[in-house]
Amino acid sequence: MGRVQGKVAFITGAGRGQGRSHAVRLAEEGADIIAVDICHDVDSLPYHLASPDDLKETARLIEALDRRVVAVQADVRERAQLVEAIDRGIAEFGKLDIVVANAGVIGQKSEQPLHAWADVFDTNGLGIINAVHAALPHLQAGASIIATGSTAAFMNTLPMQQVGTDSGGIAYMVAKRMVSSFMHDLARELAPRQIRANVVHPTNVNTDMMRVEPMFRSFRPDLEHPTLEDALPAYHVQQAMPIPWVEPVDISNAVLYLASDEARYVTGVQLRVDAGGYLKWYDYHA
């Protein structure tokens, strides 16, 4: 206990899923939390996002651990909203030590393909950059920035795609690759200031986004209306280990490590929590 005691963490996408898990895990280890989420749906995406009640539940879980929380509805595509959220948090807590740029949406085939491209890329790519850049002026030596990537950043999926048919899915991959490169170069820039920057790359994670029909169809395109039971065996294709997904806490434990002083000399790392998924795509290379 107490691995991030007394620290303040800013977490995007904290309404549910991985973001909520990160917020609770860091709070369990002593951090106070600035939690943000969009809390409404996006028209081009064929599934529901977190709600205001979801964000309230995240705040309740944090407070139940006797930690403080500032919960703000904000869209990561709008940097000014993140600046305002951080300002509110710092007014309450006095500082900022940890940034978890986590908010993301899963790219899916959409009836509005170009809108889906923009919304997916802006959330998963620009949203990460907005969160980081909104926080940078407040970070001091010892601070830690953690971005959520994806094993999709390492996959060559283009041979499996029909060009122009899945703009949201391709935008997701492109955004995650950009985040990986951005964080690598940011780590190099921040290292002399003793501020660390790393990426955690999850494989499939057992969250609400893995339990929606558009995701089922991605893995079972042979069925018109696949169910979770239909898709679950296909989810195994992403991992070398014989599992369909990892749990949110598996990613949160990696985030906690990178946020803590245990990782005080760890920076510029692309940390895969993927049950060996990378091993299915690449041979060893230095």
Automatic annotation (TrEMBL):
Keywords: NAD, Oxidoreductase. GO terms for molecular function: oxidoreductase activity, acting on NAD(P)H, oxygen as acceptor. The keyword Hydrolase does not apply. Gene3D superfamilies: NAD(P)-binding Rossmann-like Domain (3.40.50.720). It comes from the Bacteria. SUPFAM superfamilies: NAD(P)-binding Rossmann-fold domains. The keyword Oxidoreductase applies. InterPro entries: NAD(P)-bd_dom_sf (IPR036291), SDR_fam (IPR002347), SDR_subfam_1 (IPR023985). Belongs to the short-chain dehydrogenases/reductases (SDR) family. This is NAD(P)-dependent oxidoreductase. It comes from Trebonia kvetii.
